[in-house]
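Supplementary Text 2. Reproducibility record for the structural model of the 348-residue chain.

All settings were left at their defaults, and a single model was retained for analysis rather than an ensemble. We include the record here because the model underlies the residue-level annotations in Supplementary Table 4.
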Amino acid sequence: MKGASPVSPFVSRRQSLLASVTMLRVAATVAVVAAVLAPAASAAVPDRLPDDATIAGVAVGGLGPVEAKRVVRDSLAPVYEKRPIAVRVNHKDTLVMPADAGFVIFYDWMVERAFRLAGAHKPAVVPLKLGVKNKQRDAAIANVAKKYYSAPRDATVRFGVTAIRRVRAKMGRGLDQALVLRRLEKELRQPTTGRVVEGRLIRIKPAITTASLRKRYPAYISVDRGTHTLRLFRALRLVRTYPVAVGAAGYETPAGLRHVIYKDKNPSWTAPNRPWAYPYQGQTFPPGDPRNPLRAWFIALGDGIGIHGTSEEWTVGSSASHGCIRMHATDVDQVAKLTPVGTPVLIH
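Retained model, structure tokens:
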């Protein structure tokens, strides 16, 4: 053709080579896709299991999913699920059904696994798969334990005016739940002919023992208004007796059990807005001031009531205060040093 450029033989050869490479790549891609799709096609799940298939040791060859599950359940349930377990304690049995103890056999999973293996042309042999739900198991054990539980009794004291009575601690009793848990778990997973789990009772210690009472109550005070006597106890034993003044008629020291709230050494005194405090109502007097009736210590018991030394020591041994408990200054100094904050104080 006029005006056309001649084709170079080298260009033609190059185009042929490129075309060959392209065809090879396409062929390789097709081969890869075929290789990927071939197993998928061959891994199709069959309708029935092969003749040599077993689930949990049960022959299920030639069965479909529903039939296989029924056959496996009929074989395993009488052994694992339908027979109760006897928790035996001191020759007494409490029956627990496996399902109530959280036991479960995964039938659906085992059947599906068998069919997946068969579809992959692998031996359809599936071992037993079971489990125990911890929450239900523990609840079942706790329910059994209720029958045998006897609560321990903590040691305590009863404060009196002249003595302290100790109420001794008492041991409790209960089922050894940790032991039963281990044995019940084993029985659920590996059932025995008798299906019996032996339990035992253990002693339960009280939180507060008799021996700990002395440390728990390092000090105690009783105040006998009738005899104007304060008794100081240490480690539950009477160690000191002191004369005191208590409230006069109309200003009686209130009875009841109180506790030391705080202690103030060489306290100031603020006169209350009461008629008996005239003419000092509302005024505060520092330690040592002649108008300050408090001496040495003020041991606060709440509601404005306290134990304190007095500048009117001749009143000690009578009913002369306005509600507080007065002591000789030397005596209250001893009491304050021997009674920590929190010390019980019984006013009778």
